Amino acid sequence: MALIIPVRGFTPKVGHDTFLAPNATLVGDVTVGSECSIWFNTVLRGDVNTITVGDRVNIQDGSVLHTLYQKSTIEIGNDVSIGHNVTLHGCKIHDFALIGMGATVMDDAEVGEGALVAAGSVVLSRTKIGPHEMWAGAPAKFVKKVHPEQARELNQKIARNYLMYSRWYTEGEAQEGAE
């Protein structure tokens, strides 16, 4: 069972049909929407400020989400994919965005709707990535525009796939309990 820790009077809230891996950790002022998946060794640490996750978001294995005390929050829109071992710190990620494996997005950075941050990239504080843009590198720089339908289709596919993967775990539990 995931580790859910209340801190400073805040208890994490999780929407319906959301999968929490057994060793995922949610702390404090965290709200996760519906049909999400929070994978193995992932930490959403809302001890010093708010973390809000929309619907159909997958936050993959080993990712860490945190904020700055009284300065930054994390807001993640709907149908967002956060790759393995991503660090998000006090940033805003809009609907249909994709953050590639091992990327870091720092305080007050903003990733626009349908934008793509390449694997291993470092998005510096206060960087504004526009809608449907691809950024890559350390520090991350603009690479190209991405067709809006292509970005939406890619991220909806990933979101649906991760919802399917998460059901493998929850349906297995339900089947075992029926035997």
Q: Report mean pLDDT, rounded to a whole number.
A: 94
Number of helices: 1
Give the N-to-C terminal Cα separation: 21 Å
Order of helices and strands: EEEEEEEEEEEEEEEEEEEEH
Extended strand count: 20
Specify the structural class: alpha/beta
Strand content: 35-45%
| Overall radius of gyration | 16 Å
What portion of residues is helical? Answer: 10-25%
What can you see in these coordinates?
This protein starts with a strand and ends with a helix. It is of the alpha/beta class and 179 residues long. The protein contains one helix and 20 strands. The strands form two sheets. Strands 1, 2, 4, 6, 8, 9, 11, 12, 14, 15, 17 and 18 form a twelve-stranded parallel β-sheet that branches. Strands 3-5-7-10-13-16-19-20 form an eight-stranded mixed β-sheet.
Q: Which secondary structure elements does this structure contain, and how are they paired or packed?
A:
Elements: E1 3-5, E2 13-14, E3 19-20, E4 25-32, E5 37-38, E6 43-53, E7 58-59, E8 64-66, E9 74-76, E10 81-82, E11 87-89, E12 92-93, E13 98-99, E14 104-105, E15 110-111, E16 116-117, E17 122-123, E18 128-129, E19 133-137, E20 140-145, H1 148-178
Parallel strand pairs: 1-4, 2-4, 3-5, 4-6, 5-7, 6-8, 6-9, 7-10, 8-11, 9-12, 10-13, 11-14, 12-15, 13-16, 14-17, 15-18, 16-19
Antiparallel strand pairs: 19-20
Summarize the structure.
By secondary structure, this protein is of the alpha/beta class.
